[in-house]
Design a protein that fits this description.
This protein has 251 residues and is mostly helical. Helix content is 67%, strand content 0%.
C-alpha cells in the first residue's frame, strides 16, 4: 500500500465518521457530542481559574463538581454502549490506548508536575480491551444480573480512589499511595462497573427494546461532535489555553 493509498483511506474513514453509517443510533452520537461540548466548557472554565480570570469560589463548588462527575460518567457509559455496536473492540481499544499515550507524552513534555499517568483515555482503553477479551462472559449473564452487580460494585467501591492507601503498584485499581500523582485519574474501581453498565445498556439498545421514537431522535451538530469525540479530546486543551491567554491579554 502506497502513502497515497494510506492517506486516501484515512480521508475516507474521517469523512465516514462525519456522515455516520446508516445503522447508527443518532441520539447516542448526539449525547456524546453534548458531553464533549460540556467537557470543553468545563476545561475552559478551569483554565480561566488557573489564569486568574475567575476566583476560587467560581470553580470549587458542589455544582461544578457534580457537572464534572456527570460528564465523566456519560463518557464512560457511552463507551460501554459502543462496545455492543463495534465490529472490532480490540482494534478500538488499541486506538484509544495510542491516544492515551499521546496525552501522557504531551502532558509530560509541557508540564511534568501535571503529567497524566492514568486518565480517562487510559481507563477507557483498558476497559475496552478487557471487554474485547472477556466481554462474552458478561453477555451470558441473565439480563437482570449485570446492572444489579454494576450498581452494587459502584456503591461499594466509590470512595476507594478518594483515599490514600499504604500500598504500592495498585494505583490502576484505585489504591493510590502518597507518592502517586496523575493530573487526571480514572482507576478501574469504581469506573469499570460504570463501563459495564454501559455495555448492558448497549445490548438493550442494540436489540431495539427502547421506545421507537428514541431511535428517531437527531441533532446533527451534536452528532458530528460525538463522532469526533476522541479528536476533540486530544486538541481541546491547547485550544482552551490559547483562548484563555488571548482573553487575558485583551482585558
Amino acid at each position: 500500500m502506497t502513502v497515497r493509498d494510506g492517506v486516501r483511506r484515512l480521508k475516507e474513514r474521517f469523512l465516514g465518521k462525519l456522515r455516520g453509517g446508516p445503522g447508527r443510533i443518532r441520539f447516542l452520537d448526539a449525547l456524546r457530542g453534548g458531553a464533549v461540548a460540556a467537557m470543553v466548557c468545563y476545561h475552559l472554565w478551569v483554565d480561566f481559574y488557573t489564569q486568574g480570570l475567575i476566583g476560587r469560589t467560581w470553580l470549587y463548588n458542589p455544582w461544578l463538581d457534580a457537572l464534572q462527575k456527570v460528564i465523566a460518567c456519560t463518557f464512560i457509559v457511552l463507551c460501554g454502549v459502543s462496545c455492543r455496536f463495534s465490529r472490532n473492540n480490540l482494534r478500538r481499544g488499541l486506538e484509544i490506548l495510542a491516544a492515551a499515550g499521546v496525552v501522557t507524552l504531551v502532558s509530560w513534555l509541557f508540564s511534568p508536575e501535571l503529567i497524566i499517568v492514568y486518565g480517562v483515555l487510559h481507563f477507557l482503553a483498558t476497559a475496552v480491551l478487557l471487554y474485547a477479551l472477556a466481554g462474552k462472559l458478561a453477555e451470558k449473564l441473565p439480563v437482570f444480573v449485570l446492572p444489579v452487580l454494576c450498581l452494587a460494585g459502584t456503591v461499594l467501591t466509590w470512595r476507594i480512589p478518594q483515599q490514600v492507601w499504604d500500598v504500592n503498584g495498585l494505583w490502576i485499581f484505585g489504591f493510590r499511595n502518597e507518592t502517586f500523582r496523575s493530573a487526571d485519574y480514572f482507576p478501574l474501581l469504581p469506573n469499570l462497573f460504570i463501563f459495564l453498565f454501559g455495555t448492558w445498556l448497549g445490548g438493550f439498545l442494540a436489540a431495539r427494546r427502547g421506545p421507537e421514537r428514541l431511535y428517531r431522535l437527531s441533532c446533527p451538530p451534536l452528532e458530528v461532535l460525538g463522532r469526533l469525540a476522541i479528536w476533540i479530546y486530544l486538541i481541546h486543551q491547547p485550544l482552551c489555553m490559547g483562548v484563555t491567554l488571548l482573553i487575558k491579554a485583551l482585558i
